[in-house]
Write a structure and sequence with these properties.
The structure holds two protein chains of two kinds. Chain A has helices at 39-46, 69-76, 94-104, 109-122, 138-150, 168-185, 196-202, 220-225, 230-242; strands at 2-9, 13-21, 28-32, 54-59, 62-63, 79-82, 156-160, 188-193, 205-210, 213-219. Chain A is α/β, with parallel strands linked by helices. Chain B has helices spanning 2-40, 49-63, 67-73, 75-82, 88-112, 116-124, 129-140, 142-165, 170-180, 185-212. Chain B has one domain: MetI-like fold, CATH 1.10.3720. The chains are: A alpha/beta, B mainly alpha.
């Protein structure tokens, strides 16, 4: 899916160097790394907020790194993004936030209402439909953001640090929710995080990003049992000391 | 007393008329200019360096002309637009010209308060620049925009008083002709009192409205 992706800032700073990562359909892929490893740059390239210097990013066969205008806007519907800051619109209720991507894609009004009701019900948010984000709890806002990202039935759901701002209990429920989302929506999930706990809870495979390179990639079991890179060992050690 | 009341009433209506019409026109112009300043700036949704720089320069130049100078400097233009350079209609022209760059700055400031992350989120959903303006910038910035309109109307009230100095009508005109030139402190004081009431009312209404749309 991601082929030899490179991104430099200025002349010398390589934020991403030759990143290759292919994710199987329906798989939950983690990308883990310390801050400064290039996670944010990778995320911004995948959602085409930044253009990479080299490489391709294929989502359902279309290369979002080399599309522009209407073609890019169309390709973007294949990707749902849950940002770390969620980025819900303050001026819109939960239901209206979920409706936004549908409105942008030109979906007919009755169909929008239908889809929003469906998602609200699935995420257990029916009674919160007309509440504004400021009136919702952290976990509820997270659910609205995930529902919004899924509104157009994307093939890939990209989540950025979905649990870093939440308390342990909410973290567990959001991770459990993402697991259910994968099963019922059949969506491929790409989870970018610095937390091993999130990876351990729902990922099938994980890539370790360090210094803009993928230093290790494999199943979660492999990483936990036999980490080969120093970054992975440090991540595991950090996890131990926290427990 | 009766004379003062009728004078005040007449002048208040003139002032409100000038402010309302000038606010309407300058808001249209200022909103367009303010939006352009926001979307064409570096990393904006329609980044256009040269256009942005040109608009910046024009806005700054227009903003640096003192209003009282502008008032008399554009008299030929005013005559061309409304056919006269005296009276309330004539005062509206310089009010609009003077207020447009001012409104543009107010609008720009209000829209820059909109969270950049939310704009990016809309971009990743496949929003066109037009969508982003209508569905993100304007609704998300609405409380700040309402506050900007409040400030605009207060500024227009005080500008319109200056327009009175050159025969524009309204409360400023009344204060100068009766209060100052005819030594009528009672007219002067009651004019100021009316202005205070108008300003307080506008500010109160603006605050209430802004709070109504603020879902922070």
């Amino acid at each position: 899916m991601i082929e030899s992706l490179s991104k430099r800032y200025g002349q010398t700073v390589a934020a991403l160097a030759d990143v290759d990562l292919s994710v199987e359909r329906g798989c939950v892929q983690g990308v883990i790394g310390f801050s400064g490893a290039g996670k944010s740059t990778l995320l911004r390239c995948i959602c085409a907020l930044e253009k990479p210097d080299e490489g391709r990013i294929l989502i359902d066969g279309s290369d979002v790194a080399h599309l522009d205008g209407a073609a890019l806007r169309k390709a973007r519907r294949k990707l749902g993004v849950v940002f770390q800051q969620l980025n819900l619109l303050r001026s819109r209720t939960a239901a209206e936030n979920i409706a936004l991507p549908l409105e942008l894609s030109g979906t007919a009004k009755p169909r929008i209402q239908e889809r929003v009701a469906e998602l609200l019900a699935w995420f257990g948010l029916e009674d919160k439909a007309s509440q504004y984000p400021a009136q919702l709890s952290g976990g509820q806002r997270q659910r609205v953001a995930i529902a919004r990202a899924l509104a157009l039935n994307p093939s890939v759901l990209l989540t950025d640090e979905p649990t870093s701002a939440l308390d342990p209990e909410t973290t567990a429920s959001v991770l459990e929710l993402l697991g259910r989302v994968r099963k019922e929506f059949g969506v491929t999930i790409l989870l970018i995080t610095h937390e091993l706990q999130a990876v351990r809870a729902i990922c099938d495979r994980v890539a370790v990003l360090d210094g803009g390179r993928i230093v290790e990639e494999g199943t979660v079991e492999q990483l936990l049992a036999r980490p080969s890179s120093t970054a992975a060992k440090r991540l595991l050690a950090g996890q131990m000391s926290l427990v | 007393m009766n004379e003062i009341t009728s004078l005040l009433w007449q002048s208040t209506l003139e002032t409100l008329y000038m402010v309302a019409v000038a606010a309407l026109f300058s808001l249209c112009g200022g909103l367009a200019l303010g939006l352009l300043l926001v979307v064409t700036r570096a990393n904006g949704i329609l980044e256009a360096k040269w256009l942005n720089r040109t608009l910046e320069t024009i806005t700054n130049m227009a903003r640096s002309i003192p209003f009282i100078i502008l008032l008399v400097a554009i008299v030929p233009f005013t005559r061309f637009v409304v056919g006269t350079s005296i009276g309330t209609d004539a005062a509206i022209v310089p009010l609009v010209v003077g207020a447009i760059p001012y409104v543009a700055r107010l609008i720009e400031t209000a829209l820059l308060e909109v969270d950049g992350g939310v704009v990016e989120a809309a971009v990743t959903m496949g929003a066109t620049p037009w969508h982003i303006i209508w569905k993100v910038y304007l609704p998300e910035g609405l409380p700040a925009l309402i506050r900007a309109v409040t400030i605009l109307s207060l500024t227009l009230i005080s500008y319109s008083a200056m327009a009175g100095a050159v025969g524009g009508g309204g409360l400023g005109d009344l204060a100068i002709r009766y209060g100052y030139q005819r030594f009528r402190p009672d007219v002067m004081l009651s004019t100021v009192a009316v202005l205070i009431v108008i300003v307080q009312t506008f500010q109160f209404a603006g605050n209430r409205l802004a709070r109504k749309f603020d879902h922070r």
